[in-house]
Amino acid sequence: CMAKMRILLVFAACLSSGKGLGLRTHLNRQRTVLVSPRFAPQQPSSLSTSSSTSTSSSTSLSTSLSTSLSTSLSLRRGAHSSSSRCLRGVRAHGIFAEGTSKGAVMSDAKALKSWLDNKDDREPPVCLSSLRGRNDGRRVIVIINPTSGSRSGMDVLRQMVLPILQYGGIDNITVMETSSRFSVPKQITEINLDGLDDILVVGGDGTLCGVFLGLGEHEREDALTFPVGLVPCGSHNHMFKVMSGFPSVHSKVRELDVLEALLRFVKGDTTKVSVPLVQANNNKKPTPFLCGLSFALLAAAFKTSEGLRWTGFRKRRYYAAILYQISRMKDYRYVVRYLPVTSSEEPPREQPKTFSDEWVTETGPYKWFGFSPNSFGVPRQDAINENWGYLMIIENTRSPLTIIQTILKPSLKDWENKKYARLEKVKALMIQPLGSDKDWNMDGEKMPDFEKLYVTFARKKATFIG
User: Fold this and answer.
1) Residue 360 pLDDT exceeds 80
2) Residue 234: which pLDDT band, with cuts at 50, 70 and 90?
3) I need a labelling partner for 204 at 20 to 30 A (CA). Which of 238, 249, 362, 388 fits?
4) How many CB atoms lie within 10 A of CB 451?
5) Alpha carbon 171 to chain centroid distance?
6) Signal peptide position in this chain (predicted)?
7) Torsions phi, psi of 227, nearest 5?
């Protein structure tokens, strides 16, 4: 492991110095699968598939086929002799940790797992089959990113998602395959939401955040309220853990957790949550985000880690990039203004030009600071804080070890009991860079250089389902 880490650090150094390895290629490609079966207990549903490949010219190719559900679930990989063997293949990819999740696990999820292991010989459990009537006519689009995390999203789709949706009575399914997480926002803006009821994301944090980014840019005025569900297949699955009440970002996502989420999606369980918005420079329309914003050290680290995605490493590439940037021990300066959660003033919707005495102003220097709207271990309706977020600051330290301990193993105690770390609860945030360091990161993505950022909340605007 140490040898691999040293190799990654060398790659990180090359990329940070501008000597990119040039091994990544982005393809402008989209594949759409239309699943329109009618459930029949003795006659498995059919799958209708159409594929399209688009470039800068409007060249396209479409095909259509019909097949049984058992054949559709083995699309691209060939038929499997049993569902249990399929699921063992999914587990081998390392998406789910073995064992049961902490706390009580719903017996319905266990029943689903048992059924999927022996689906050819069993009827679906009552917890699933009893939902067929309520889902008649329900229209769902599945957004899948095959490159998320360990690249096993297609296996999860075939072996878990489609059987549960279809046997639960959802017979109008469109599957849209993204060419990369960078293409998701544009694809979402082109979807006719009036012809759909729900969106289900099979992917990681980047794909989910891309969906919300696209909804924020959609021509439909209330697009941000459109119901969105999530099946986690990413490197960190941060938002799934937040919305599922996991105690920390380091909690393990297990198979039963995902089955519970899928069953809640089929049931149609929804939760209204707030959405943080960031307004960059002088843009009139703010942009929604979910995981958080990052500046200074971690912004540079995320930029480096993206250049290491081709290695196939998941979390290790993030850690390698962070360690490299920490080793530089660089200071960053920004003008940071924030409105504490204890203030009586309500934050304006757009960037303020003047600031009252209730606003706090500081200029660093900082090693790192970021903003997160999320709370772990709370009910899902409170997972994204309604009108405030955490401003996290690391400063006044020359020890790389202290930074590593705080960033890689975060807890409230790390921020509350350290002289070099601060945690502020803020209702609004304004940031301006001082000097040439204008890198910033939103939901794990490098964003264009900025002159000014303003962060507020749209209260109870988004709808999570599942």
Assistant:
1) yes
2) confident
3) 388
4) 11
5) 26
6) 1-20
7) -65, 130
Across 76-93, b (16+ Cβ under 10 Å) vs e yields eeeebeebbebbeebeee
Q: Which two tokens stand for residue 291?
A: 């995981």
Counted residue by residue, the chain has a size of 466
Cα angle 452, 457, 461 (rounded to 5 degrees) comes to 135
> 322: closest CA among 2, 12, 10?
12
CA 309 centroid distance within chain: 16
Radius of gyration of the CA atoms of the chain, in A: 23
Backbone angles phi, psi at 116, to 5 degrees: -65, -30
Lowest mean pLDDT across 85-99, 237-251, 402-416: 85-99
- C-alpha separations of 349 from 27, 372, 428, 447 in Å: 37, 19, 9, 22
Alpha helices in 118-150 (DSSP H): 126-129
Q: Which DSSP string do the residues of 165-203 spell out, in sequence order?
A: HHHTT--EEEEEEES-GGGHHHHHHTS-GGG-SEEEEEE
CB atoms within 10 A of CB 362: 12
Say if CB 263 and CB 127 are below 8 A apart: yes
- Residue ranges of domains in the chain, CATH in brackets: 38-268 (3.40.50.10330), 276-465 (2.60.200.40)
Other CB atoms within 10 A of residue 417 CB: 9
| pLDDT above 50 (res 47) | no
Of 362, 364, 419, 425, which Cα lies nearest the Cα of 392? Answer: 425
* pTM, rounded to two decimals: 0.74
Q: Do 111 and 122 touch, CB atoms closer than 8 A?
A: no
Specify burial of residue 104 (Cβ count, 10 A radius: 0-12, 13-18, 19+).
exposed
Please give the Cα distance from 321 to 340 (Å, whole number): 32
The CA distance from 251 to 274, in Å, is: 23
* Residue 261 falls in which region: left (phi positive, over 0), alpha (psi -120 to 50) or beta: alpha
- Separation of alpha carbons 234 and 93, rounded Å: 11
282 vs 129: CA distance, rounded Å: 52
Output the pLDDT for position 152.
Answer: 76
Judge residue 193's burial from the number of C-beta atoms within 10 Å of its C-beta, 0-12 exposed, 13-18 middle, 19 or more buried: middle
Which pair of tokens denotes residue 313?
A: 């490493």
User: Residue 19 has what pLDDT?
Assistant: 33
Contact 364, 437 (CB under 8 A): no
Q: How far apart are the first and last CA of the chain?
A: 37
pLDDT of 30 over the 90 cut: no
Neighbour tally for 184: CB within 10 Å: 25
Report the SS3 class of residue 270: strand
Dihedral of alpha carbons 151, 155, 157, 160, sign: negative
